[in-house]
Amino acid sequence: MMExxxxxxxxxxxxxILFPYPYQEPLATEPPDCFYDLNLDQLIDTITGSKPxxxxxxxxxxxxxxVKNIQYRQEVMQDLENPTLLxxxxxxxxxxxxxxxxxxxxxxxxxxxxxxxxxxEAVFVYTEAIQSLYLGLETEPIKSEGLRSFRxxxxxxxxxxxxxxxxxxxxxxxxxxxxxxxxxxxxxxRVRVKRFESERDxxxxxxxxxxxxxxxxxESYLIKYPERAGINHVEGKILELVAKLFPEPFDDLDSFLxxxxxxFDPTMITFDREIQFYLAYLDFIFELxxxxxxxxxxxxxxxxxEESVQDGFDLMVAAALMKEGKLAxxxxxxLRASERILVVTGPNQGxxxxxxxMVGQIHYLASLGFPVPGTEASLFLVDKILxxxxxxEEVHTHRGKLEDDLYRIHTKILQASSKSLFILNEIFTSTTxxxxxxxxxxxxxxxxxxxxxxxxxxxxxxxxxxxxxxxSMVAQVDPVDPTIRTFHVVREPADxxxxxxxxxxxxxxTYEQIRERLS
Amino acid sequence: xxxxxxxxxxxxxxxTAELSPLWETLVQDLGLETxxxxxxxxxxxxxxxxxxxxxxxxxxxxxxxxxxEILKDCLNHPELIHELYRIPLEFxxxxxxxxxxxxxxxxxPSLILSGARQLLESSLDLLHTLRTVAExxxxxxxxxxxxxxxxxxxxxxxxxxxxLVETHVKSLRFPGGVLLSAQLGKGxxxxxxxxxxxxxQTGSWITRIFSEKSPVYSFSLHPRxxxxxxxxxxxxxxxxxRVANSVAQAAxxxxxFFHRLRWELSFYIxxxxxEEQLKQLRAPFVFPKPYPxxxxxxxxxxxxxxxxxxxxxxxxxGNQLHAKNRNPLVIMGPNKGxxxxxxxSLGQAQLLMQAGMFVPAETFSANxxxxxxxxxxxxxDKSMERGKFEEELQRMSxxxxxxxxxSLVLMNESFSATNEREGSEVALxxxxxxxxxxxxxxxxxxxxxxxxxxxxxxxxxxxxISLNPLFLVAERLSDxxxxxxxxEGTPLKTSYGEDLYHRVFAL
Lengths: 519, 507
Hints:
The complex is a heterodimer.
Chain A: H1 40-48, H2 57-60, H3 67-80, H4 83-107, H5 112-139, H6 145-159, H7 161-178, E1 181-187, E2 190-195, E3 200-201, H8 202-209, H9 233-245, H10 247-260, H11 266-290, E4 295-296, E5 299-301, E6 307-312, H12 315-323, E7 331-335, E8 341-345, H13 352-367, E9 372-373, E10 376-380, E11 385-389, H14 398-415, E12 421-425, H15 433-450, E13 453-457, E14 470-477, E15 485-491, H16 503-506, H17 511-518
Parallel strand pairs in A: 5-10, 8-13, 8-14, 11-12, 12-13
Antiparallel strand pairs in A: 1-2, 4-9, 6-7, 6-10, 14-15
Helix pairs in contact in A: 4-5, 4-11, 5-6, 5-7, 5-10, 7-10, 9-10
Chain B: H1 23-30, H2 33-40, H3 44-55, H4 61-76, H5 78-98, H6 109-137, H7 144-156, H8 159-170, E1 178-184, E2 190-197, H9 205-210, E3 217-220, H10 226-281, E4 289-290, E5 297-303, H11 306-312, E6 319-324, E7 329-332, H12 339-353, E8 363-366, E9 372-376, H13 386-402, E10 408-412, H14 420-436, E11 440-444, H15 448-455, E12 470-476, E13 482-488, H16 497-506
Helix pairs in contact in B: 2-3, 2-10, 2-11, 3-10, 5-6, 5-10, 6-7, 6-8, 6-10, 14-15
């Protein structure tokens, strides 16, 4: 395959849709350590799953360090939330995908007019895509710096003479070729080709004969032959004979392609990939929005550690529940004044871990420049998210596990700065209560000294009221039936709830409940 | 179009509808596998059919009578049913042998077309046979179902119709080759292949096609070019796709008719098998009298557990009962006294009646119910662990999710996985609430506290219902012998576990 020569007919778009010129940040080559614990690995797999060809993951692995860059992306994203603009851009990238497929296909083809046919098709779709993007951007209000400068560039490109020639010629030749009609007669191993001369449609005749059998629930035997990529030597031969029957349009095709085989503009290619970063996320949250979830653009700053999020939720939980037609519970959290550590207690399976993950996810997504789960959010731009979750798969002796826990926490504290976010989930569960309290208090002291932000899920009520920097959050149960978890996590003192079990009530089998169920 | 309608007067039986999600529990608790196996007589297909038909209850008494009539014709003329049954079997047999590539996923239009043509051809004589059977027997049958079926066959399969099919089937050969028109699509690939009828002209086939003004170019494949040959046949297939579809749909319509005929007849074949077995055991059976849905009635004599009789291979003791508007039925008494068997026989008879079948009794009449649910204590539940009790509650909750007014709930030792006081309290709340929703309850229990409270009508305070319970007790003679008979009586405190213990330990 020949290395394709790329050229631009005009000056390239000076910046990227992902970074304001010249504040490009380096891209990571592997996911951050917190990905697994926060289920961000699954989330990013889900988001990028349908777009493997764009190699988007490195973009998702690279949180921004700079508040300005976050604003640049938030503005682009806000423009894209305009549904008509979004639709136009999506149509554009879909067509670009088709162009790439056709080009790649043409490279593999053996028959001259077949190969040329696909290149013509690629040129045709390409010019259509750009033409309609141009018209589309013209009429839409665009506020972001990123999309405005891209629009200017597109305008110049479309108005160039080279593009105009490409566009009109491709159209005309395609029209001429597709209006040709011919016949083939297949008999044994002999193939004859001639022009079409208004012979009658035989299938329709037979269909009418057997029409009376088509009533009722009879399966269709109609085989849909898919559009194929590539033709074989027989069809190649037929095509050759068709070219012989109709020489003129094929001569036109030859001369057009001899001057326009390279037609791609590199700036378009870059834009096509980078805009996918936004589209992928928007697609993902779109479905959630239609089910009543809110997303908001967080106010992100790197000076003050006060934070507040209303109606946040765990994105992976929401996505999983959506498949069952259920809604995830929404929770608020905030850090005021000197508060730094959210200590989460409450019943098992009560939504504590989900709450902790939610806090981590919201911080991470905000640092990518995305809207985050919630109706309102203001966040501190953390430099790192450090997680410590109990690992079920690691089988150790008790002593070994405790050592391992301590070792891992120590390493993380060494990596952390005062701008880091810690997420600790049920640490020290494998040791005695006394040990757990002692060790937890030690770690707590270190974190308080560091002044990092932290979410700490624990069964130790004691941790929730160490000093003014700790905030107690409690996973709630139904006040009527304590066996029912509400998954709400609320700012209130830890109280070590007792769970009076009313089993029949739990299964909704009391007299009143059954009557209600059957009424 | 041709409809079988042997199971409903006005519609096909839905062969693929979802059964109630709790059907496996019902089959297990009522011990229905023995019944299905006996009816199937070793035929897995019949097994599937009878299982499905029996578990899909009729509720309308007129539909029950419609099936009863057909079944009576079947029992009077078993040889006619077998003759009819052989027709679809023969068809399916031929289909298996002659038409291997039926499925559109695996086959090409040429294969579908030739297969469908063959199938139509080979079914013509069976359609003839069917008409002959119909002509011969239309006077012998009494049921509306058979009379309608036979007259439909005579109308739909007349000579004109059959010879029309024959002509069409033969006209679809292409001796002169297949003529297709096409155009250039994306990438200059040939597309839009349409089968064409050559323009009529004098002369041979080939000269007719190519005597027009267009130049003709041609080539031939090398004789050893196998991939080329495959490609040509694919092109041909593109052109034949629609024609193949039409012919195959016609063939399938006939195939579906035969398939349904076999399916619906299988149910009656199963009933004939069952009748033979019962006759051999000299066990009684009777066509029940269905009451209207809203007239709670339960009246029978000689009712026995058909599955127990079939598996023991002998006639067993039957019970009698005459109850109108009595609810709940509370069955108490000694262990191993026949209580579970009695409860099962109630469920079985109800199901069989609502399948349009005869029931294992000397007389039987009841109103149809809108659902039959079983809540039986599982062997493994008998400990007092809380988990077991929860499991019981969970199963009951599943029943409450699905129960409708006029359903029948059969409870066997429910809520015994906890202590008697608690179990009784839950039982009373559940039963009272079910009764208020017009659910029929039959409850085998040892919960004396529950029975006592039902008897004294000490029900939940907010309930307005007036209970009209019927208490039944498994009979035990004064010497301790169990007769396996269930009689009206009042709940007694002990359940005779003690003597069972003594007897077993005395051995």
